[in-house]
Design a protein that fits this description.
With 467 residues, the chain is an alpha+beta fold. The chain has 11 helices and 26 strands. The strands form 7 sheets. It has an 8-stranded antiparallel beta sheet, covered by helices on one side. A 6-stranded mixed beta sheet has the order 1-2-6-3-7-24. Strand 17 and strand 18 form a beta hairpin. The longest helix has 18 residues. It is elongated and about 80 Å long.
Length: 467
């Protein structure tokens, strides 16, 4: 009904959208130490202040929640919809080549800069959807709120603070995911484990082993130090392990020690099959070596049986499960730190709707106990799911299909989004299949066409849900 007017309005404001986005991108909003009135430091607070100034300038009723979040409201009726975006960003490296991270640049149909796709660009798209509705004086029977946070990248404590003061809206979407719509986020079981055992001076022995530093990442590197091991025996085992695991093994001799390094391929723990786990490759190698029998070596061999190389579905642990709507369970052994006398590690599993603490958590706990290790206490984080046949999800898909001409189907993911803790929240945009925005990486960008299209889709959704 209003599509032509909305489209024409957004098309007329493209340059203004880009300039407003540049204002936000120029602010280094990485989390810092707290300061008085600035719970996440100066940068995130500055980004919230700049966004509030923009929202107020475009006629929204704004409120600053103690520099945790800022909000902008449109409409006078009962609130129906929250749009939840964030203005904090991940750290940067010195590998940028197109521009500097906080010096936005428009080039070849893209805008480059940290936060352009995650999540300052989508936040601006949502803001311009609201601006279009207000300035075109399109009717709203119910109100909509744009909620802009500043701690999504470091745990979302901003939302914990906000929702201690406000109720969840009947509908919430975050433009911090992918189109068409993410309505299902798998359960997560991420736990540490440990063991203590008598030290052993028998040779050959393992003096130290270390791999991984983040449990939600497939480790790309692993290292071990052997004592009293013949280099010829290591070479023979490493050749077999390399053929089996496709990992790379290299070592150097230091007197009676051999320092071994293993190289695999990193990936996110929600898609471990996309990587090559250097840690499980190393554990496999250990099972081929003539290490003296001791409590530590037995536990390392047990870990190799529990997490065999290439098993990313928990089959060896007998926790593999799947359902049609959410897909298969994934398993990643992400961290291990071993020295003679103790070991400590961590694993990460993303589980489908059919997973429970009984058929996953407790089975994992028993497996570790049987192997002489103790798993950290606690229940898994439940899956997040908004039914695909709900009016809310169907409305989002209709607007997406209307503007793209592509049949939309709800997505299930292993990761978590900004709305994971909300009963009625989904992720909607702005990622497009087949486009790598270098999110969290060097030379992050947002395609201009996607930015402008998203604003139009969001305006269409707001009009439908709030009328």
């Amino acid at each position: 009904m209003y599509r032509k007017r909305i489209d024409a309005y957004i098309d007329s404001k493209k340059q203004e959208m880009l300039e407003d986005l540049k204002k936000l991108v120029r602010i280094n909003s990485q989390r810092e130490d707290a300061q008085p009135g600035m719970p996440y430091g100066k940068g995130p607070a500055m980004a919230l202040d700049a966004a509030e100034e923009l929202m107020r300038g475009y006629g929204l009723n704004t409120r600053n929640y103690d520099h945790y979040v800022v909000t902008g409201d449109l409409g006078e009726g009962e609130k129906e919809l929250d749009i939840l975006a964030h203005l904090d960003v991940v750290p940067v490296t010195d590998g940028w080549t197109v521009t500097e991270p906080f010096e936005p640049l428009v080039l070849d149909g893209k805008i480059y800069g940290r936060g352009t796709s995650d999540d300052k660009g989508p936040a601006i798209a949502a803001l311009y959807a609201l601006r279009a509705i207000r300035e075109l004086q399109l009717p709203l029977k119910k109100s909509v709120r744009l909620v802009l946070g500043s701690d999504e990248e470091c745990g979302s404590s901003d939302l914990e603070y906000y929702y201690s003061k406000e109720k969840e809206a009947p509908c919430t979407f975050t433009p911090d995911g992918d189109f068409p719509v993410i309505n299902l986020e798998k359960a997560r079981l991420s736990r540490e484990f440990e063991a203590a055992f008598p030290q052993s001076r028998m040779l050959p022995g393992i003096e130290r082993l270390k791999a991984g530093d983040k449990v939600n990442v497939v480790p790309a590197k692993a290292e071990a130090v052997f004592v009293g091991l013949a280099e010829a025996e290591l070479k023979q085992a490493a050749e077999k392990a390399a053929e089996t695991t496709k990992a790379q093994f290299a070592w150097k001799k230091q007197e009676n020690r051999i320092v071994l390094s293993v190289k695999g391929t990193a990936a996110h723990a929600s898609t471990p099959e996309a990587g090559n786990n250097a840690l499980t490759a190393l554990l496999y190698l250990l099972t081929l070596l003539p290490i003296a029998d001791c409590g530590g070596y037995r536990r390392l061999c047990a870990l190799s049986r529990m997490f065999p190389h290439g098993d990313t579905k928990g089959e060896a642990l007998k926790v593999d499960m799947a359902d049609e709507e959410s897909g298969a369970l994934t398993m990643n052994l992400g961290i291990l730190d071993y020295q003679d006398g103790s070991l400590k590690g961590a694993f990460d599993s993303r589980a489908p709707l059919c997973a429970t603490d009984e058929n996953l958590t407790e089975k994992m706990r028993k497996a570790f106990a049987d192997a002489g290790m103790q798993m950290e206490e606690g229940a898994m984080i439940p899956a997040h799911h908004v039914p695909a046949d709900s009016y809310f999800v169907r409305t989002l898909l209709e607007s997406y299909e209307r503007y793209t001409g592509i049949k939309g189907k709800p997505l299930a993911i292993g990761g978590g989004t900004y709305v994971h803790e909300l009963e009625r929240g989904v992720a909607f945009g702005c990622g497009i299949e087949g486009v790598d925005n270098h999110m969290h990486g060097d030379d992050e960008f947002m395609e201009l066409d996607t930015l402008f299209l998203s604003a139009k889709i969001f305006a269409d959704v707001i009009l439908k849900l709030c009328n």
